[in-house]
Amino acid sequence: MSDEYDRDERPSWRDIDKKRDRSSHVSSGDKTERKDKPPDRWKAGRTKKALELLFQGDKGTIEHEKLYGRMHKLYGTDLFLPTVQKYVEKYGPPDDTSTLILIIDTKDRDIIFLAFDKLLKVYPDASPREKEDIRRKLSIVSMTDKSKEIKLRAADTLEEIKALGA
User: What band does 47 get if pLDDT is binned at 50, 70 and 90?
Assistant: First the structure.
């Protein structure tokens, strides 16, 4: 036979893998000491969520989540207004536009005006869909509410929002 087929001179696949340091037969030491280990996404997510809740203050508590959920669940019932009043008394107006739009239907003048003021503050940072929802709700309230005072305030708020840039 010729020399090119002599197995003694060619390295085995095992030897090739050892040279590449990829072989499962070769121990690479303690794997926990690897510096190129990717970060644990689960831990990072939990840490991020915990920090966000910490910076939210009272609005980051379980009690807030329960009352917030209850407020959404009771929409359209007789218990909706007392729940919203309790929420606003304890935590102030909600931060999200969908809930602000929801509490306009309480028919409580003070809460509605509070929601109008908060909508003016959150409008610049709202998504295009949320902006459209805000404009539509204010337009509907300005045309259909029974109270003249609420109609005028809704119309004024709508004009201020249009001035901010639709």
Answer: confident
pLDDT at residue 23, as a whole number: 47
- Nearest to 44, CA basis, from 52, 32, 55: 52
Task: Indicate yes or no: pTM above 0.70.
Answer: no
Q: Are 107 and 72 members of one domain?
A: no
Give 153: exposed, middle or buried? Use CB within 10 Å, 0-12, 13-18, 19+.
buried
Structural domain that includes position 78: 42-92
- What's residue 132's pLDDT? 93
